[in-house]
Amino acid sequence: MPETPTLTGRVVFQYFYDVGGDIELERIPKQNLAVIERHVPKRARILAPKYEEVGFQPIEVDLEARKIDRHKATIEGHIFPIGVIGINITIEFRKAGFESITKLITLNERQVKVDGAEIDFDELPLGLFKDLVNTIKPAIVYPYPAFELPEIYTLILIAESEPRLNAEDFLTKFRKQTAGLLRGERDWRSLSDKEVKDALQPYLSYSDADIVIVDWYSALISGAVEYTDELVRMIDFARIQLLELKTYDRLLDRRVERAYSSLRTALAGPRMGITWRSRPYGELTRTASELAELRVEVTDFLGDLRNILKLTGEWYLGKLYRVASERFRIADWLALVDKKLNQLQELYAMAMERVDVHRATTLEFLMMLLIIAIVVLEIIMVVKGL
To answer: Could you give the CA distance from residue 128 to residue 239 in angstroms, rounded to a whole number?
Structure first.
């Protein structure tokens, strides 16, 4: 039986919220926020994180420490220009066993005492998010209906272990305990081999001393202490992608439903008459315009998502991003949104076809009136002998 190790590190509870619009960082009233200035130290290249980010460099804000049950928690807000705010709640642990850390990981599944008040854990980040949104409201542009449910994720960041654990130890000697951490399962002994294999399957290890395991609900990073923030950033990007894809999927569902309703009304309406004054025609024209604008917006957004990072030589970070993307099924969500985008294009084509029919009908009607008017004038002129 291997000696039970003790671990030192921190657990980060992450909550990513969609704000319902883009955020222009230069318009944020920074004087009202405790902005965190990061100074990245120079270091020797091991897996040098040299990459160029596309619109995903956040402003980081100190939201003050809180006491959650008996744990001191540091809280930060991350404001991303794509229209996402992340709330990170970090709790450190020292020389703790697997069971103790698993108990800590499940803290967000129950009620906790925060500064003396009993609340659901999720209420804390939600309240902080709402306060932060109110503070940066002038910086939110191009509004749309926000996706109300947050993307929740947990990071288990291990800096030290006694005795020292290498990457293989997490995958073999303590595989069930590691799977229990990732799944937040206190009774880790009951996990089946299949479930353990599924939890540990997507992992990367640059050296024997470090490992990154990406699961659906959480990720474990051990070793590579100097580069932990860079590794976390890759997982964050994939998680934000997932949130925004869900947002646009929901937005497309709403717009497509409205478009169907408008088209049904227009198709059931009269085909003759001065249609530009009719309510169905006005609704149909607005629908066509909205569909065109939404299609351009979503197409542009998907282009940004597909090119979220322009890696300039850091293949390891690129590999981690791909592992996270595959784990979170980003490709499936992209395909789903693409399918609805094509459906949107078909509806736009139908709407424009109907608009053209209305316009043609109106022009024919006006031409008939003009011809009748000319004939009447000719008759009047003949009768009067002009």
So the answer is: 20
Q: What is the pLDDT of residue 335?
A: 87
How does DSSP assign 15-66, residue by residue? EEEE-SSEE-GGGS-GGGS-BPPP-PPP---SS---EEESS--PEEEE---E
Joined together, the tokens standing for residue 279 give 């309510």
Residue 191 lies in a domain: yes
Q: How much is the pLDDT for 257? A: 79
Give the Cα separation of 256 and 262 in Å (integer): 10
Residues of the chain with pLDDT under 50: 1, 44-52, 272-274, 276, 312
> 108-166 pLDDT, tens per residue?
988 999 988 899 999 999 999 999 999 999 999 888 878 788 999 999 999 999 999 99
At position 366, the amino acid (one-letter code) is L
Query: To which H or E segment does residue 86 belong?
Result: strand 84-96
189 with 90, same domain? yes
Query: Taking the CA of residue 330 as centre, how many other CA atoms within 13 Å lie in the half-sphere pointing to its CB?
Result: 21
Tokens of 312: 């300039």
Q: Are 140 and 21 in contact (CB under 8 A)?
A: yes
Last residue of a domain, one of 176, 195, 229: 229
Q: Provide the domain count of the chain.
A: 2
